[in-house]
């Protein structure tokens, strides 16, 4: 069932197709580059998505040089390595365990929180990881809204990535996004994927009304 945009009058059906209905997880891209500027524009949009305490703990490592790409691929599981090497850009999404250092600027109304979290590493790790996953979702949707195609992956050796790419840093990898444009022979919104679209749960499967 499609959203009646004449009633809700918020976002066109075309945009909803681009971002949700027709968007697929892909592993094949054109050779076209994805620039830092494109990712910056997407960030400047998706940073408005809500996070706990306005903490914004997600960080991004844009991996594009051959050397960095090979290093990242060496930590990817199975076929994820080849997928990573084929993508014009891979973005390692990381949870910043020291996100609390930014709270005086991001949440000045919570004056004591920075110092409380400084003494609570477990709570910081949980908040950072939870909200980084949330922001990762915003980012996937934002990249798709910018017309880019995305392949998210968690199949990799995260401690290995952290030791190799984030040594001495409070960033902890949680997801890798392969990002690119559609292959040249591709037409329309629907994204080329290796297998048919799989089922999704219905409202009745996921919702209870009390
Ligand atoms: C958090 C996350 C982790 C994923 N990890 C992998 C992965 O390691 N390797 C892979 O090939 N696909 C991975 N996927 C892709 C999913 O299998 C895919 O999004 C899902 O089957 C839906 O496919 P569709 O978007 O084409 O409908 C991941 C997706 C998400 C969101």
Automatic annotation (TrEMBL):
The keyword Oxidoreductase applies. SUPFAM superfamilies: FMN-dependent nitroreductase-like. Its EC number is 1.1.1.298. It comes from the Bacteria. InterPro entries: Nitroreductase, Nitroreductase-like, Nitroreductase_HadB/RutE. The keyword tRNA processing does not apply. One of its GO terms (molecular function) is 3-hydroxypropionate dehydrogenase (NADP+) activity. Keywords: Oxidoreductase. Gene3D superfamilies: NADH Oxidase (3.40.109.10). It is an enzyme of class 1 (oxidoreductase). Residues 22-180 form the Nitroreductase domain. It holds the Pfam family Nitroreductase. This is Malonic semialdehyde reductase. It comes from Actinotalea soli.
């Amino acid at each position: 069932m499609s959203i009646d945009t004449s009633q809700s009058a918020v976002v066109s059906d075309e945009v909803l197709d681009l971002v949700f209905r027709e968007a697929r997880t892909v592993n094949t891209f054109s050779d076209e580059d994805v620039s830092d500027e494109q990712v910056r524009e997407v960030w400047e949009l998706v940073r408005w998505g809500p996070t706990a305490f306005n903490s914004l703990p997600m960080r991004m490592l844009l991996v594009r040089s051959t050397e960095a790409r090979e290093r990242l691929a060496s930590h990817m599981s199975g076929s994820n390595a080849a997928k990573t090497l084929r993508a014009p850009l891979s973005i390692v999404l990381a949870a910043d365990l020291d996100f609390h250092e930014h709270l005086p600027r991001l949440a000045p109304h919570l004056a004591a929180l920075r110092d409380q979290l400084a003494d609570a590493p477990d709570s910081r790790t949980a908040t950072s990881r939870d909200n980084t996953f949330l922001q990762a979702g915003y980012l996937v949707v934002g990249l798709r809204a910018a017309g880019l195609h995305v392949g998210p992956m968690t199949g990799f050796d995260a401690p290995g990535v952290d030791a190799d790419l984030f040594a001495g840093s409070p960033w902890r990898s949680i997801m890798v996004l392969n990002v690119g444009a559609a292959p040249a022979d591709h037409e329309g919104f629907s994204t080329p994927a290796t297998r048919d679209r799989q089922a999704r749960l219905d409202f009745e499967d996921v919702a209870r009304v009390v």
